[in-house]
Amino acid sequence: MADVHDFRINIPRPALDDMRDRLRRTRWPAELPGVGWDRGVPVDYLAGLVRYWLHGYDWQAWEARLNEFAQFTTEIDGQRIHFLHVRSPEQDAMPLVLTHGWPGSIVEFLHIIGPLTDPRAHGADPSDAFHVVAPSVPGFGFSTPLREPGWHHERIAGAWAELMARLGYHRYGAQGGDTGSVVSPLLGRLVPERVIGVHLNGGLAFPSDDPEDLVGLTDAEQARIAAAEQVRRYGTGYADIQGTRPQTLAYALTDSPVGQLGWIVDKFKEWTDPAHELPDEAVDRDILLTNASLYWLTGTGATSAQLYYETRAAPPKPVVRSTVPTGIAVFPTDPAIRRISEREHHVVHWSEYDRGGHFAALEAPDLLVDDIRAFFRRLR
């Protein structure tokens, strides 16, 4: 296909050797006794992950696993875009564009691409099949180098519309969590004649300052609001830094793989299923390290952070309520309230789960896949 090029991940051996050398020479910080996770990632926990990164983890095995999926690059609006494009064996499958967030990547989709594209092979109804397109957000992974400022959510949605058209998909669904929970609805608003439906997880729906927003909330909704307020009070420092000084942060993330790992692990601790005490209990340790390795080996700790700056810098626009049918899956740690979500989205499907977390595709892939299937089933 014109302007679309085959791609395979092939990290050269010197880059892997350099990463391992830097891991061995880590200069560990001092730590106050007895503070646990209250002030960030504890040294003993991160040191344990690093020992495994050095002596137990095999990047090349995971690189091979990622390369089992067909990958491509193309240029859109002056930016190199890398994407997975996995076609279903079912010819009448629905095209579906998946969008990851920060601090995630295409690694998030490892557990769901198979069941989505080939439900027959996974014991499910083949009529629920999807052709999956999973781009790396500009500045993330292999959608680099980031060539200019201005890659905010709306521009990303525009690039996805062009990508899907370039692939020959004129009617398709959109799904996403975190950044994807913003980009996917924007894609629906941008080309509502093409987007069949939008499915979201990991989305935000905070009450406004109007006291009426807090009237009639269920116990579960009140608990989600309380948890969200806790996060806003103590857990948004990363966004303030990335949204105001991404270049200053870049030096630490680009020079230290341990610094990059710690920056990511902090969010996996805060945002994963609270039923699990540690991040690698909620998400497989090898997956955590594959995601962190991808950031490190592509040098995208810096450029991925730029998205937060662009989001703050983008001129505010009035929100127009979407007309596209929208489904929302709510997992533990997601501060989503249906009647607030309905102000912006045409919600026709709402599910609440007591297992999983912000990284649902990694934490509860079975639940997420089933929910995506159930939502789009009525729209085929």
Automatic annotation (TrEMBL):
The Epoxide hydrolase N-terminal domain, residue ranges: 5-109
One Pfam entry name: EHN
Hydrolase listed as a keyword: yes
Superkingdom of source: Bacteria
PANTHER family: EPOXIDE HYDROLASE, EPOXIDE HYDROLASE 1-RELATED
Family: Belongs to the peptidase S33 family.
Name of this protein: Epoxide hydrolase
Record lineage: Bacteria, Bacillati, Actinomycetota, Actinomycetes, Micromonosporales
